[in-house]
Fold this protein.
Amino acid sequence: MTKIKELNKSTRNNIITLGIILVFYVLCQILIAAGVMSNLMQGLLVPLCYYSILAVSLNLTVGILGELSLGHAGFMCIGAFTGAFFTRCTEDSIPNVFIRYTIAVLIGAIFAALFGGLIGVVVLRLRGDYLAIVTLAFGEIVKNIINALYIGIDEKGFHISLQDASNLKMAEGGDIIVNGAKGITGTSRDTTFTIAILLLILVYVIIVNLINSRSGRAIMAIRDNRIAAESVGIDITRFKLLAFTISAAMAGVAGVLYSHNISSLVATPKNFGYNMSIMILVFVVLGGVGNIRGSIIAAVILTLLPEYLRFLADYRMLIYAIVLIVMMIFNWNPACITWRKNHSFKDILQSVFKNKKEEAKASGKEEA
Amino acid sequence: MKKMKKVLSLLVVSSMVVASFAACGTKNSSDTFTIGGIGPVTGDAAVYGQSVKNGAELAVKEINDAGGINGTQITFKFEDDMADGEKAVNAYNTLKDAGMQMLMGTVTSGACASVMEETNVDGMFQLTPSASSTDVLKNGNVYQVCFTDPNQGIASAQYIASKGIASKVAIIYDSSDIYSSGIETAFKQEAANQGLEIVAEEAFTADSNSDFSVQLQKAKDAGAELVFLPIYYSQATLILSQAAAIDFKPIFLGCDGLDGILTVENFDKSLAEGVVLLTPFAAESTDEKTVNFVKAYQAAYSNETPNQFAADAYDAIYIIKAAAEKGSVKADMSIEDIGTAMKDAIQQISYDGLTGTQMTWAATGEVNKQPRVFKIEGGKYVTAE
């Protein structure tokens, strides 16, 4: 107990967050082993992880870097498609799932980072909300290009077309991997809960280390006061680019998890569109801008909520929206924050214990 | 003291978590069949999901009133998937927790392609009313009530060629939609075989589906005599009114997605005059089965006219009944046993329904039935020659 207290505040916070993730993991494994976990919850475990990764990665851009990205689903989309494409191509040549999956995750991350970097190089030099505008457009472009993209493979190699499947001119026995609007089907479902949790922890550790490093302090300095940061010789574009690229890469990792959890991968406005980007932003804002643990918790709650509201049938999405608004107000309205401080559960518990302690002391004195 | 507090709060939290994750324990009692349905009842495709839900519930009610399947009553549960694969899997798991034994779903092809992997693992019987993509046939565990997309494209091309109604054809389709692009690809191939000339092939996407003046102008300039619309009716109404605005009057031909075009509010129905559509079901049809169904549907759902999706779902429930009776399936059998028995049985039955007569199924899951061609005349569907 005392040892934990001696650590500095951020380290203690990180240990607590990692502890929560691990306890959650162990608890879920026990429940699965005991056979009491519902099918719904078992199916949701992996989505919880990739939504958490998305929330954490966007928090790096929004909370730490202080820029707004409205195209995070686009990076996820790139990660999902490149990762799934790799797996579909190499299912026979690399039978070892572990190696194949690791490479797929790396490819997804690298491609997402590449596009993040490309956008960042141009946009992050500017001041103002240009990143939001450009990423918003980027997300839509990615989705539309993938919907028009046909890639097939036969013994002669890859065939690419932007028209339709018959334009690929494939030889007999060729395999169409990316089939336009039908996307990629039949990716082997390699994502397991364990892998997803490990990746979540990895992403968390990377981000926390980045925040507490020299680069992280430079990034936060840029966020807080750009002119002051510039005056002490911080290379603004370089550090902005660093943070944004890492953030994009992590969204790519989440995409790989997504595409290996679902057998038919299609880019629809629902899963990789503007709404999804906003959803991720909602995770971040509800959990607290710059608060990594908060965004994980918000992602988990907001993913579970619509599923557990299913009993409301037609009113489900209506109630979901109301609950979301109430949660936002409860979390961030100044009046609510004061009220919460005055009526905190911790204080009540403390005062109860204190009273007991005093009573015990008093009774001890009387006996004496 | 602090330690105790932490232990206490951890206990409270973990017990809450356990309570929320654990199955609710409402397992199916073995004296009824539990059939699950999945489809979008919120979001863009909500019209189709709602129709499927209504059609299926109507059929379940009728069957239960008539004594059920071999004397066993049916419980029907429907969950929303917002036409999204991920949500559809969640809906499937929810239904499984509620004791589902057979699945009538999903409504849309993309969601179906995700759910079919789950039913394949569980051995659950799956009959989809309206997921028409060939992707859902890949595992051989999904049975369809509707035609596959390529079949609709081929049938359309053959119809045009055999009746000789046009030789220069333009296509306007939604390249971001599986249904639309699936029909379009097959239509184009068959059109080449039939000697039809495709003079314009214009695509739009879900993000740009309100202005079709460019596509229509191109089709007009190319001298198209017929415009093929393998799309849904909401966009088709826009195309028809925008074509009228530029005085472009070809023959319009569509597939089952166009069914429902006469029910669109604020749409000038005279624009739809002469539209030809290949659809298995038309509410205006005069055969006895359809008339009775439309009457019952309107009585149950505040005078709403059923569309093809409702009819598909209605048929789907009766097909499940027919197959379950043929295979003498019992409600207390395991999900896998029901699945195997149903798969054997459905290949042996021949079913006469609203959406086709003498429907039979191949082992792949594909349905075998005859397409019907309707023409809109005087604000009504009439059977075309």
Notes: Residues 24-28 of chain B have pLDDT under 50 and may be disordered. Chain B touches chain A through 53 residues (CB under 8 Å). The radius of gyration of chain B is 23 Å. The first helix of chain B runs from residue 2 to 21.
